Amino acid sequence: MSRSLQVTQKQQHQQQETQQHHYESSCYLSTKSSVSKQSFSTYKSSSRRQKTSVKTEKVQEVVKLSPLPKRAKRTYLAMDLDKEVIGYVVPVFRANHDVVRGLMEAHEDDVTEEGIQYVAMRNLFVRESREAMEVKVEKKSRTKHVRESAERLQMVKTMEEWSEFRKKMNPDSLTHPAEFIVKPRGQTVWEGKTVKLHCTVAGWPKPRVAWYKNNVLIDAKAHTEKYAVESNYNMHSLEIKNCNFLDTAQYCASALNVKGEASSVATIVVKRFQEEKEAGPLDPKPHGFCAEHGVTFYTTIIDKFEVAFGYEGETLSVGCSVIIYPTVKKYQPEVVWYRNSVPLKPSKWVHTHWSGDRATLTLSHLNKEDEGMYTLRVNTKSGFDTYSAYVFVRDADVEVEGVPVAPLDVRCHDANKDYVVVTWKQPAVEGSSSILGYYIDRCEVGTHHWAQCNDTPVKYARFPVTGLVEGHSYIFRVRALNKAGVSRPSRVSDAVVAMDPSDRARLRAGPSAPFTGMIKFTEEDCTVGVVPGEPSDVVVTEATKSYVVLAWKPPVQRGHEGVMYYIEKCMSGTDTWQRVNTGMPVKSPRFALFDLAEGKSYSFRVRCCNSAGVSESSGSTGDITVGDKLDLPSAPGNPVVCRNTDTSVVVSWGATKDVSHLVGYYIECNVVGTEDWMPCNNKPVKQTRFVCHGLTTGANYVFRVKAVNAAGYSQSSPNSDAVVVKAAISTPGKPSGVTLLEAVKDYMVVGWTAPASNGGADVRGYFVDYRTVKGNVVGKWHEMNHQALTTTSYKAENLKENVIYQFQVRAMNMAGVSKASLASAALECKEWTITLPGAPVGLHVLEVRDTSAVVLWEPPAFNGRTPVNGYYTDIKEAGKGGWKAAHEKANKKKYMKVTGLKAGASYMFRVRAQNLVGVGKPSAVLGPILAQTHPGNMEIYVDVDDDGVISMMFECSEMNEGSEFIWSKNYQAITDTSRLTIVTEKGKSRAIFNSPSLEDLGTFSCVVTNTDGISSSYTLTEEGLKRLLDISHEHKFPVIPFKNEMAMDLLEKGRVRFWTRVEKLTSACQVEYAFNDTIISQGKKYTMNFDKSTGIIEMFMDSLEVTDEGTYTFDLVDGKAKGTTSLVLIGDEFRELQKKSEFERAEWVRKQGPHFVEYLAFTVTPECDVLLNCKIGNVKPETEITWLKEYIEIAEDDEDAHKIERKDEVLTFNIGKWVIKQEKKKEKGRKKPPADDIPLPPRPKISKQDAGVYEVILRDERGKDKSAFNLTDAGYQAVMNELFRVIATSSSVVQVVSTEHGIILYSMVTYYDQDLRVGWLHKDAKIAASERVKAGVTGEQLWLKINEPTEKDKGKYAMDIFDGKDGVKRVFDLTGRAWEEAFEEFQRLKAAAIAERNRARVVGGLPDVVAIQEGKSLNLTGNVWGEPVPEVCWVKNDKELVSDDRYKLKFEHGKFASITIAAVTTADSGKYALVVKNKYGTEAGEFTVSVYNPDEVEKKD
Fold first, then answer.
1. CB–CB of 486/439 below 8 Å?
2. 3-class state of residue 507 by DSSP
3. Which residues on adjacent β-strands are paired with residue 1228?
4. Peptide bond preceding 177 in cis form (omega within 30 of 0)
5. pTM of the model
6. Contact at 8 Å (CB) between 832 and 743?
7. Which residues pair with 1078 in a beta bridge?
């Protein structure tokens, strides 16, 4: 028993050691974890049935943690304060439980939150441990044995609990996703304050928390001046410093661990104080303190560049002025330029300059790649400031109309030893037709030779270029192609080196370590002469209908020498592998295969080779179908256009759906009413919002958008709604001129001026703010009115007396409230003593007329609180009614012309002055005044004399003694005498304008003193002044007007006529004729004529000589007026005129005898006959007409003589006329005509044999004339081109006909020439000739045969006939009903042909009649054909025969049917037939059998 108990104690001790070991291991599983305190208690048990006593001694064991074995060293993760793994550590600390408990009680501050969570979770499952007990047993009874058994069971249970504990302590079982315990709460703060968002996140492992603003990640480390992020004990916070209005947004906290992600959103609203002023361009911006220099730098960007436009090839410069305050000696900021958020580096295209106060960016030789958003960033030690604007680059003019513009953004990818992939972006403008494809050119760096890489244009904006030389550098460019031609090349790509990527990486990395001076040699296995291993991982990286690109990994075993590769292909369904590059193995692990059949499936594999041999093949790629894998993008969504500025709009649209590798979008605009679509951007943009600049203000535009990827362009989006380009509605400008109108004890009346700009919408009202002023201290602004005011004044009530106030005003329209006006001056609220102005004085009237009068007055003696700012005139008819205002608005002038009076009525007048307070008392009444024009009172009139002097005239016939003329301007005395000169003679006064100009505009009046109110006025307006100045100029410098300037005509016989026509003249007008400033007169050389009735002046010359080169002039004098007209004949113009004159004279001489009215030329008739025509004139019957070909006369007996015809005065030579030679000698007795008399087939209309020089000569005693036509080279080609044009024009519409073999498309022409080029296109692609599709000509029928058509043959077909210039197209749409009918007819004819070929028939072997002697045996065999093998039967007299002893019927080999009749009798005579039948038809081979008896025949004979 003692031994049993010892065993039990030993097991318990081992179990405790195991538990402690596990505890130690789990303790080190987590970095910086804490160990929980464990308590050990004494377990005591007793039993009443135990007869022996058991002494228990409590002993507390100090159990040391067992050390780990040396081979079991573990490495553990080491983390920094941000929980980032920075390496591994090996724990060297060991301790017992007492030490661990001491560490727990210390609660060290560096225990991380992760350790606390770990211990807390583990403590949930910790069980109390037992203390080791030392038991001494004196005697073991059965009861003790039972108890030991129970203890063993307890031990097993304890071990199970510890096992369960270990499972739960596994970190994988404790993990759970992130969860927000406390979510961040939205807040509203004032601008300039700091706000902090808090949240608490739980989860295991500890989640990583990131903050987002409007779904954009906040990088607090990059913006320390704005954001601060903290994370402590699952408490996370985001601090936003110095909030401004742009910080109003949705902020999202996102927590992520391996179990999942959780997020919570809070909204921050930043309010702006009303009293805060808007920061100006020079106002300081918040910057950080620079400890290095001891100051805070403030950056201000001024003189900013606007949105810029440039054309390809030009040079464009943009820049800004930068102010850095304060100025620190030898300190300069960092100036960085960006394009589309990418820093720009100086290059041959980009040049930057910083002068110390201005940053400039120069873009030389603009290309569309240069288009984008340009940003200037100025970095200082305290912060940075930026400014951005867009630069547009427009296409240069194309050299050929209709060709596309150049592609852009050419780049090189995946460069290898002899291979590179070139990509580019499609241009915005395709030209007059869609782009058919692109050509890629390459040029080796250091040379100027460009080589085209592809013979066939590629449609994808991606192309693999092969055949490069390893180690050489190349640049590339791309050209676009459409039907009109080829575009200009794009900007060249960056240079790329053809080499292995690993070699390129080693070159960039440089030497890995400095040279130590020691070279070590190592022995390696000799691999020279070893066949390399096979490549691996052969895949297809690109697949289009034009090419397929393969990539693979080089072999592991390749030897010291390099390896090359052979590529093999196998068409699906076959076992034949074909080597693609037999003649030239490739060096790169890339290869592009061209000329594969579209729609077919291929497998590919690769072999390595070196000098030792060729390796085994790699694994196959599997079946790859040749075809485009990238689809065209779908059309973008409907564009929505919003107004922006006077020259720009904002266009937004829906993104293209389900698109791969989207390059971007192009936006196009169109002025409503036109058909031209113009690109808004020449570089695709990826966002779905774009600001279109450079539009015409007030024009009506519509917009559309198209997407583009490597496959091409999408369909254009629907057109947007039309929008008129003008500035968007904005808040109005600031009101101005806030002034005090009135002040009392407790209120003040303020007024202001409406804003100069209403923001595009009517101003709806105003809001007034006020604040108090005490010394130099101002209070806060407060609102005075909550409802908008409709007037420009306001009564501010409930104010405090003797308190000083300031006021500011805001205007409001439908867009919002404007910025506040400038604050008014400090205004004290106290009652004014003087209010309204006094009454005006000195009222009097002038210029009294029947319907008007001018009232004048002087200002009042005092103005009231403020100066007088206007007057009101009241009128009243004497003895009737009350006073009425003569005008509504205050008149600021001190006079008023009252109109609308009644003649003969008397009126009274009065005037009231107005100031800011109001309108004062009226003046004394003036009148009554009789509305009547004084007899003899004349009006001022304006006169312009012959010398062009402008003056005003006023006359008075009632001058009295002492009367004088008093002139005034605007009813004020004229003080500036330099403007006018007054000349008075008796009763006439003249005011002469010394130098008339805009300064003289106004109302001039003249009063005659000492008379009964004689006066008058004249208002000189700008329009009137211009009219007077024109008249003055005409009077000073009179000019004889010409209807037309001197001209020249060429007359018959080469005479020259110089002439002109005068519009207006008198009989005294004289003309002088001059040549080179020398007067000429009428004589043998010159003939002059001047018809004064018509105004035509003429001068004639019989001919022009060399000395006649110069200037011809007609000088006219008509009294004071003069006129001159000239014509200059010098240089080429004179020589050309001289030649024409000589030619006309020679022509006149030529036409005196037989001559050509129209010279020899060619004509092609609608029947395609080529005719040489000429028209002759002035011929006589004896005039000889001779035709020559190649300078040899065509005799009457020549074959060509029959081609010559003459009808009236037209001679014709029919080149294509066929002449049948007749035999001159007649042979007697011969019935058949000779062979030469048989008509031969028609000859060509024209051929090379007809080429030559054709001439026609006219000759008689009066002279001769000659005309020639050169029908060689260019002449022959011109004739052929015209012939082609006639043939092409005569072609009929394309028609379709079906045959048993397929479908035929054909067109008929009048005539066909073998040199005529005819091409057929299917879906705008040229049709290549093959066994299935053939094109040809039969007679005058041009046809395209499609054998065995399929669904792929549907589509639009076009026949392109060369017409000598461009071409004539005949289009036929073989789709829809046309396809269905043609295909059905083809199937029907094909079935009929098959039936005809395979129907059962008797093909021979049977006679028509068989005569046989009675008793003989008859054996006949018929040859039979049919597929399937026909059924055969024999018929006699329409009754089927059955094979028996008499009739033996046989059918052998499916071809031979025989009948045998042994010993025929006369009964066997009759009509027989061999009937064959199968599913395609039935046929009978009939014959007659006649049996005769020789004896009976002899008797009859």
1. yes
2. helix
3. none
4. no
5. 0.41
6. yes
7. 1075
